[in-house]
């Protein structure tokens, strides 16, 4: 394994990170569970999972991915072509690939929230390592299914997932993602506390 694998892994995961972070930043409004409680008396998901966060996060993550796709096409013909960066199958299939990565990430986060509520953990409480990996696992699984579908119905001659994501890419992301996620959460909470303090002054 060389450093190009690391670069490729982070290239693919950027839209996923953007989608996950954007859902938190631009979220709000009507919750996905519409305020309903489960039979155990706890919320189905909680106020942190909203329709606006789900769709806006997916859109912003895909927007970042579109930019990467364009950049990859230029880099492929430059001195950096050896990096083998994906353009997510190019237009128009990149729409489906990027949707599967970004929506899959947020869907994984929603599913994790459901089980988090079932064990009695409230919004904001840490559930390590699931809080740090739910969106990554969701993105990988959903993109695998969509890539398989595209290949089976012959919309593409190659299987995007298996062509660009190997066990080494997955291992790198599984190890690095928790550290990035925890660091981002700490910074986000500090910013929110500072903002709340300034409002009280």
User: How many independent structural domains?
Assistant: 1
* Count of helix runs: 6
- Weakly predicted, low-confidence segments: none
* Structural class computed from helices and strand pairing: mainly alpha
Mean pLDDT: 90
Strand content: under 5%
Fraction of residues in H or I helices: 55-70%
> Could you tell me the radius of gyration in angstroms?
18 Å
Order of helices and strands: HHHHHH
Shape: globular
Number of strands: 0
The major beta sheet can be summarized as:
none
Beginning-to-end CA distance, first to last residue: 53 Å
Oligomer: single chain
What does this structure look like?
Helices cover 68% and strands 0% of the residues. It starts with a helix and ends with a helix. It has helices spanning 3-25, 51-75, 93-118, 130-152, 160-164, 167-200. With 201 residues, the chain is mainly α. The protein has one domain (3-200).
What labels describe this entry?
mainly alpha; 68% helix; single chain; 201 residues
Topology:
Elements: H1 3-25, H2 51-75, H3 93-118, H4 130-152, H5 160-164, H6 167-200
Helix pairs in contact: 1-2, 1-3, 1-6, 2-3, 3-4, 4-6
Short account of what is shown:
By secondary structure, the chain is an all-alpha fold. The protein has one domain (3-200). Helices cover 68% and strands 0% of the residues.
